[in-house]
UniProtKB/TrEMBL annotation:
<dbReference type="GO" id="GO:0006749">
    <property type="term" value="P:glutathione metabolic process"/>
</dbReference>
<dbReference type="InterPro" id="IPR008040">
    <property type="entry name" value="Hydant_A_N"/>
</dbReference>
<dbReference type="GO" id="GO:0005829">
    <property type="term" value="C:cytosol"/>
</dbReference>
<feature type="region of interest" description="Disordered">
    <location>
        <begin position="1"/>
        <end position="24"/>
    </location>
</feature>
<dbReference type="GO" id="GO:0047423">
    <property type="term" value="F:N-methylhydantoinase (ATP-hydrolyzing) activity"/>
</dbReference>
<feature type="compositionally biased region" description="Basic and acidic residues">
    <location>
        <begin position="1"/>
        <end position="10"/>
    </location>
</feature>
<dbReference type="Pfam" id="PF19278">
    <property type="entry name" value="Hydant_A_C"/>
</dbReference>
<keyword id="KW-0378">Hydrolase</keyword>
<feature type="domain" description="Acetophenone carboxylase-like C-terminal">
    <location>
        <begin position="511"/>
        <end position="664"/>
    </location>
</feature>
<dbReference type="InterPro" id="IPR049517">
    <property type="entry name" value="ACX-like_C"/>
</dbReference>
<feature type="domain" description="Hydantoinase/oxoprolinase N-terminal">
    <location>
        <begin position="22"/>
        <end position="193"/>
    </location>
</feature>
<dbReference type="InterPro" id="IPR002821">
    <property type="entry name" value="Hydantoinase_A"/>
</dbReference>
<dbReference type="InterPro" id="IPR045079">
    <property type="entry name" value="Oxoprolinase-like"/>
</dbReference>
<dbReference type="GO" id="GO:0017168">
    <property type="term" value="F:5-oxoprolinase (ATP-hydrolyzing) activity"/>
</dbReference>
<feature type="domain" description="Hydantoinase A/oxoprolinase">
    <location>
        <begin position="214"/>
        <end position="492"/>
    </location>
</feature>
<protein>
    <submittedName>
        <fullName>N-methylhydantoinase A protein</fullName>
        <ecNumber>3.5.2.14</ecNumber>
    </submittedName>
</protein>
<dbReference type="Pfam" id="PF05378">
    <property type="entry name" value="Hydant_A_N"/>
</dbReference>
Length: 673
């Protein structure tokens, strides 16, 4: 059979005996929906509604489910949290700290981003000084009380917060990761006196050492609470059964998601990595370098058997130390705007045309030249393309837009378009190097997996830039993040700071430390429908040499074995090892329900070269470049570049010297000839 990539008119056949599953990914330009019912997959792409993002989500769900959304399993990846941070659309939030530590978030780590700048730009101030409040209670470095918290202190805080008129409160006390009783007491007093406040406390959000990183995570969780919580409640009201993707590539219920808003950062991109791993496995690949290129940005990652997580993510300049998928993001997407700097040099991004008005070729009034417009000018996006199955291209508008920079550069429109693509390609190649080669990972023998609405147009150029010979353009490449939602497991991530020499730790202590975390995560997963017998666990440890500040995360094993493994990992990452004691910094617990039973169906087999739907002119390559409709391709068929493969959700450019083959699942495997 042929996989269906059709547009709005495409729906799986209904079945009165069972409902289906929906994966919904909201991007800056489009909201993607993928439906699975009776093994069949179908997609729908709709323009995002940035002012009210739930509207596009609800419309996309109802396209397939009609008024029966409650009967479908819906998993949603949202950009609401990320966009709120990037746009500084945060609630008015107070910060509560110990006496003398109210300015911790402003001081930060004093790590200079511009090491040699004589007048570096100041770091943003997360919480204004007038909203930072202190409490005289104090714990020592072992979590024991030095100055007890009393009722009068809590009453004073209530009065100050009421007068300040805040919407949210972040509580971050010293050593609360060892003993959270004082933070819990303050939270209880505030909830009793000011029940409408969104409240976050560090001992719950991130019970790890490092008051600055813990404080930032707690502040973000509180400041995002009203926006994210309101959005999720509106979704739940309209759709009822919704699971939310979190940044560590698992799902949580709406209640948990609303209470842990900071964990929703990178929600959508996490779905993309799950989808990439799922499709890579279907193609028999153990490790792939991924590029997810959407309308506003590109995300790159190195994906192996288990998705790598990191606690070193930075968003809008803030360190976000909660566990998230390990990826690198740059502001280069299909909607990235090309412009000339003060010296007359061509630049691309990070500003984007977004969903409204979008690139000029969308015909919605956009006038700025974008990466997508450059593809249209060069013919790599044929004039007959229907984006999302229902949006035509305005070629003349694209030429006018690119002409705005071609004229001052004294270039033809085509040469200016080619320059835009070269600059965008170099930016993305640099990002791919950051996540791989810069970490000592050779990827020459791996495959580059490109997806997103714009990614497959750049696949061959990026592979050549990385010295890679093989590219995988997955089935449903334009909506792979939505597909990743369907294969996401219910999961929880928890951490606990230990700060002890590894040689002094025994397994009985580990079990005792983890028992409260295991109980809490078990209860949460069971409440969301996971059978206790189906819960799987993975334990890892953050380790470092005594005296160091940076750590490496390794899978847990017996302490003696872990010491040797750490020495080897340190040598592999940094090129050397020390004969120093190894310290256990944090334990990290991952618990998850079963993997959803989703499989890609096989497509029909065929032979030889497929029949082209049309031939088009591509700049520099003549007027007879074949265009193939992906829905008409069959497993086993081969063809050489230059060629274009179009579908409703993305377009693939196959450069000269590259050849394509269709595998049994409908993936396109590109190899350099």
């Amino acid at each position: 059979m042929t996989l269906n990539h059709d547009d709005r008119s495409t729906k799986p056949q209904s079945n009165s005996q069972s409902a289906g599953e929906l994966g919904v990914d909201t991007g800056g330009t489009f909201t993607d929906v993928i439906a699975r019912e009776n093994g069949a997959l179908a997609v729908y792409k709709i323009a995002s509604t940035p002012d009210a993002p739930e509207e596009a989500v609800i419309d996309g769900v109802r396209h397939f489910a009609g008024d029966a959304a409650a009967d479908w399993r819906i998993v949603h990846g949202s950009t609401v949290a990320t966009n709120a941070v990037l746009e500084n659309n945060l609630a008015r939030t107070a910060y509560i700290a110990n006496t003398g530590f109210a300015d911790v978030l402003t001081i930060g780590r004093q790590a200079r981003r511009e090491l040699y700048a004589l007048e570096p730009a100041p770091n943003p101030v997360p919480v204004a000084p007038e909203l930072c409040f202190e409490v005289d209670a104090r714990l020592d470095a072992h979590g024991n009380s030095l100055v007890a918290l009393d009722e009068a202190m809590c009453d004073a805080l209530v009065d100050k917060l009421r007068e300040a008129g805040v919407e949210a409160v972040a509580i971050n006390l010293l050593f609360a990761f060892l003993n959270g009783d004082d933070e819990a007491a303050i939270e209880s007093a505030l909830r009793k006196a000011l029940p409408d406040l969104a409240i976050a406390r560090g001992s719950r959000v991130l019970p790890e050492y490092g008051e600055y990183e813990r404080g930032i995570a707690t502040w973000l969780n509180a400041a995002l609470g009203p926006t994210v919580g309101g959005y999720l409640r509106r979704l739940e009201s309209a759709l009822e059964r919704v699971a939310i993707m979190h940044g560590a590539a698992g799902t949580v219920g709406v209640d948990q998601a609303a209470d842990n808003a900071v964990n929703l950062l990178l929600s959508g991109p996490a779905g993309g990595l799950l989808g990439a791993r799922f499709v890579a496995r279907s193609a028999g690949l153990d490790r792939v370098l991924t590029l997810d290129m959407g309308g506003t940005s590109s995300d790159v990652a190195l994906v192996a058997d288990e998705l790598a997580l990191t606690s070193k993510t930075r968003i809008a300049g803030y360190p976000v130390a909660v566990p998230m998928v390990d990826m690198h993001t740059i502001g280069a997407g299909g909607g990235s705007i090309a412009w000339l700097d003060a010296g007359g040099l061509l630049q691309v991004g990070p500003a984007s045309a977004g969903a409204e008005p979008g690139p000029a070729c969308y015909g919605k009034g956009g006038e700025q030249p974008t990466v997508t417009d450059a593809h249209v000018v060069l013919g790599r996006l044929p004039a007959s393309t229907q984006l999302g199955g229902h949006m035509g291209l305005d070629v003349e508008a694209a030429r006018r837009a690119v002409g705005r920079i071609a004229e001052p550069l004294d270039l033809s429109v085509e040469d200016a378009a080619a320059g835009i693509l070269r600059i965008a390609d170099e930016a993305m190649t640099g990002a791919l190097r950051v996540i791989s080669v810069a970490r000592g990972e050779s990827v020459a023998d791996d495959s580059l997996l490109c997806f997103g609405g714009a990614g497959p147009l750049h696949a061959c150029a990026l592979a050549e830039g990385m010295g890679m010979k093989r590219v995988l353009i997955p089935v449903f490449a334009g909506v792979l993040s939505a597909l990743g939602m369907l294969v996401a497991r219910r999961s929880r991530e928890r951490s606990l700071s230990i700060l002890q020499p590894l040689a002094d730790v025994d397994t009985d202590e580990i079990d005792a430390w983890l028992e409260p975390l295991r109980e809490a995560t078990r209860d949460e997963l069971v409440e969301e429908g996971v059978a206790e017998s189906d819960i799987e666990e993975r334990l890892s440890a953050d380790l470092r040499y005594a005296g160091q500040s940076a750590s490496l995360n390794l899978a847990w094993r017996e302490p003696a074995e872990l010491v040797d493994a750490f020495h080897e990992a340190h040598a592999a990452r940094y090129g050397h090892r020390f004969e120093l004691p190894v310290e256990l910094v944090n334990l990290r617990l991952h618990r998850a329900g079963p993997v959803p039973d989703v499989e890609l169906p096989d497509i029909e087999t065929g032979e030889g070269t497929p029949e082209a739907a049309e031939t088009v002119a591509v700049h520099g390559l003549g007027d007879a470049v074949p265009v193939y409709d992906r829905d008409s391709l069959h497993a086993g068929q081969r063809f050489d570049g230059p060629a274009i493969v179009r579908e409703t959700v993305t377009t693939t450019w196959i450069a000269p010297d590259w050849a394509a083959q269709v595998d049994t699942k409908g993936n396109l495997v590109l190899c350099q000839r």
